[in-house]
Design a protein that fits this description.
Main location: periplasm
Radius of gyration: 19 Å
GO cellular component, one term: periplasmic space
Subcellular location: Periplasm
Keywords: Signal
Distance between the termini: 47 Å
Protein name: ABC transporter substrate-binding protein
Number of strands: 0
Strand content: under 5%
Length: 193
């Protein structure tokens, strides 16, 4: 069986399938390249397309070696790439800690909803010393224009089901998990108010 790769590839293949393209017969996906080296391999003409995280995609454009032609995030819907997990016992014993953590994250979400890409880029620039402000602004603008950031942190059932659809499509999920048993939204809902 062919390896399914990580989430970027599983999302990519899911989008292909949703658009009537069979990843196993309609194209060739090279999975032998370390994910950190795919932009360099693409730059050396190894492949016609590449799936890149930022700042790799923008770097390829700036170097004149490629163009961003689509966004997996736009084409897939809200895939929950990041989720925070805690044992039920920790949640029960530390609700104030959980709420404070979620409130802080929501504060960041509120910031990106109420500020321009230029303002966001300037604030986050120190976190990305390998990238200049112009590159960071380009990336943030792209995410901003694509509506990448939700307004809140509520892990909606539709996103949970989409994640399971993607994992199932990739052959990585044998049995679906019940949303109600695994997801707690009360902290995010309270933070969003």
């Amino acid at each position: 069986m062919m390896s399914t790769g990580g989430m970027p590839e599983m999302v990519f293949e899911y989008i292909l399938k949703e658009n009537g393209i069979d990843p196993s017969s309609d194209l060739e996906i090279n999975q032998s390249i370390d994910f950190g080296a795919t932009a360099a391999a693409f730059s050396e003409n190894l492949g016609d397309f590449t799936v890149e995280f930022e700042p790799g995609a923008t770097a390829l454009e700036k170097e004149g070696k490629g163009y961003v032609v689509a966004s997996l995030g736009e084409d897939s819907g809200y895939v929950p790439y990041t989720a925070f997990s805690a044992k039920q016992s920790f949640i029960d014993e530390n609700p104030d800690t959980i709420q404070s953590f979620v409130n802080a994250l929501q504060k960041g979400m509120d910031y990106v909803q109420s500020h321009s890409p230029e303002e966001i880029a300037k604030i986050i620039e120190p976190q990305f010393p390998e990238s200049d402000l112009e590159t960071i602004t380009t990336i943030v603008t792209r995410y901003y224009d694509q509506d990448t950031w939700k307004e809140n942190l509520v892990f909606e059932k539709s996103s949970f089901e989409l994640l399971q659809d993607i994992l199932e499509s990739a052959g990585e999920l044998e049995q679906r998990a019940p949303y109600e048993d695994l997801v707690t939204t009360s902290f995010a809902e309270k933070a969003a108010k």
